[in-house]
Amino acid sequence: xxxxxxxxxxxxxxxxxxxxxxxxxxxxxxxxxxxxxxxxxxxxxxxxxxxxxxxxxxxxxxxxxxxxxxxxxxxxxxxxxxxxxxxxxxxxxxxxxxxxxxxxxxxxxxxxxxxxxxxxxxxxxxxxxxxxxxxxxxxxxxxxxxxxxxxxxxxxxxxxxxxxxxxxxxxxxxxxxxxxxxxx
Length: 184
Description:
By secondary structure, the chain is mainly beta. Helix content is about 0%, strand content about 45%. The chain has one helix and twelve strands; from the N terminus they run ββββββββαββββ. Strand 7 and strand 8 form a beta hairpin. The longest helix has 4 residues.
């Protein structure tokens, strides 16, 4: 019996393209506190046509960028292989005692969610936040906490980033958000 085999190869399957959660090029659907005076800025953007700029005014101590998406978004990643990435601008990081990023698969951010405490950078395996633009790459496998078993990554419905300052601010503090996506 003659048997032959020829030209066997192993090939890598390319990862899926990044899934854009929001380009932060428009304020449509974004929920920011009224005193943050949100706007779309084109100068200094990191991706797309602009970024969301807000500020915590003097006397304030809280910032939030939150969005409920009109349809569920399939992140095309898993907890084992995925990252949530975005650009975050912080004028003075030392002012903050807490900054968190969260995703949920319901329109209630306090249910079926994953969250990351961004100031605990060593635990997350990311560089410490610095003044100016930060490219934040959060491994979904290294969440700081979850609720109800975590978000369904095939049905993301809510994104939020928020933070509290150490004390009431004595001067305005600029914050920016750009290019939120999932990557493998």
